[in-house]
């Protein structure tokens, strides 16, 4: 089988991350995905709709599992139906940017292990973390007694005053703080290897990282535009002004500021999940008993995150380094705001 290369490195399939055999139907792809796409289009196959919410992550080890999501991925990375029908690539689907070279191998430390095995382990790690994220993701949370009113846009329009919005916002936030932290704890325990860390270290990591992970999760979930943000679930536009006069105002400014920059990177759900793992597995937290165990695990996740980013953002090589520089902003946020948060949620601190 032929393998496409770039500067001597094998090029990866944009669909599944396997080694690409060449440029097929508009993108670098492996023989498997090329054949799958050709058959799907030539025979106009209608695959059974995904039963996992159209969110399957397509990787080499599971690419045959959900054909529906695999075809969706083929199209979303730019495979061209016309190219299949015409039997050649129309001009507009010629290669754009540089092909994706294979990422550095995951640092498992065992040099003698075969690269195929370590690649497979990395894919398993990514799939497990993506699954953990789906099971613990934040969907806007619970609404408390505002449930009925808040979903009724007319209610806000007829009572259009900032004080009402402030009250609603504060209630939504306080009601959701503890459940959100609980979800983060559940998520952490599902990261492969986390529960094998020293018991005290698991607690230390969770205590020091929960707020940082929460910031990232909220930022990814929020829809921010011009200092306004939408709780899609509540069909309501809020603005930073609605926080004025509440004890959350300064924190909210910091969150929105961060969220706007974070959203601009257009990370996938899976990348955000991996990034929050990197935060959770920081080996420099004060008081860790066995920091090198934490670091070993973190390095695996960093390599996995880097491989996903290389694959998903082929035209912007700066995404990964830019994301890594966010780690210090996030820590800064936590240092500045944790005491303020605990005052607001008096009695709701994570345990
Ligand atoms: Zn492929
Ligand atoms: Zn699927």
- Percentage of residues in strands: 5-15%
- Mind telling me which CATH architecture of the largest domain this is? Orthogonal Bundle
Main sheet: strands, sense, barrel:
3 strands, antiparallel
The shape is: globular
- Structural class of the secondary structure composition? mainly alpha
The radius of gyration over CA amounts to 23 Å
CATH class of the largest domain: Mainly Alpha
Topology as a string of helices (H) and strands (E):
EEEEHHHHHHHHEEEHHHH
Number of E-state strands: 7
CATH T-level fold name of the largest domain: Retinoid X Receptor
* Assigned CATH superfamily of the largest domain: Retinoid X Receptor
Indicate the topology:
Blueprint: E1 5-6, E2 9-10, E3 22-24, E4 27-29, H1 31-42, H2 67-76, H3 81-86, H4 115-136, H5 147-150, H6 153-158, H7 162-190, H8 199-221, E5 223-225, E6 228-231, E7 236-239, H9 249-263, H10 269-280, H11 291-312, H12 319-344
Antiparallel strand pairs: 1-2, 3-4, 5-6, 6-7
Helix pairs in contact: 4-7, 4-10, 4-11, 7-8, 8-9, 8-10, 8-12, 9-12, 10-11
The protein binds zinc ion (2 copies).
Description:
This protein is globular. The protein folds into two domains: 81 residues, Erythroid Transcription Factor GATA-1, subunit A (Erythroid Transcription Factor GATA-1, Chain A), CATH 3.30.50; 230 residues, Retinoid X Receptor (Orthogonal Bundle), CATH 1.10.565.10. It contains twelve helices and seven strands. With 351 residues, the chain is mainly alpha-helical. The protein starts with a strand and ends in a 7-residue tail after the last helix. The strands form three sheets. Strands 5-6-7 form a three-stranded antiparallel β-sheet. A two-stranded antiparallel sheet has the order 1-2. A two-stranded antiparallel ribbon has the order 3-4. One zinc ion binds next to helix 2.
